[in-house]
Automatic annotation (TrEMBL):
Organism: Methanothermobacter wolfeii (Methanobacterium wolfei)
Protein name from the UniProt record: Uncharacterized protein
InterPro entries: LutB/LldF (IPR004452)
GO biological process: one example: lactate metabolic process
Lineage: Archaea, Methanobacteriati, Methanobacteriota, Methanomada group, Methanobacteria
Highest taxon listed in the record's lineage: Archaea
Length: 101
């Protein structure tokens, strides 16, 4: 499907307008407050990571879910390979984990 010049110009104007609205929205006090709140939550989570991981491991295990924690990408790949070895089919849920490895 090929677009004509007028359609391309109109699309560029629309994207430019959306970008202007997005930038204006990011300057709103409520958005800045949310950004600050998310930063504080992230920092607190990093400070409490050991406790949060213990809680997650306990909760998952209590619910019959296997919990694996890898120190790095190589270890993660090794864990995954070991888990799926010999299986005929593997299902993966939507996750950023694989792209992060």
């Amino acid at each position: 499907m090929e677009m004509n010049e007028d359609s391309i110009i109109q699309m560029k104007k629309s994207f430019r307008k959306l970008d202007e609205r997005r930038l204006k929205l990011l300057d709103e006090p409520e958005i800045q407050e949310l950004r600050d709140r998310v930063t504080r939550i992230r920092e607190e989570s990093v400070r409490n990571m050991d406790k949060l991981l213990r809680t997650a491991r306990k909760t998952f295990t209590e619910n019959g879910v296997e919990f694996h924690l890898a120190a790095d990408a190589d270890e993660a790949c090794s864990l995954i390979s070991g888990i799926v070895a010999g299986e005929d089919a593997v299902a993966k849920s939507k996750s950023n984990a694989l792209s992060e490895i």
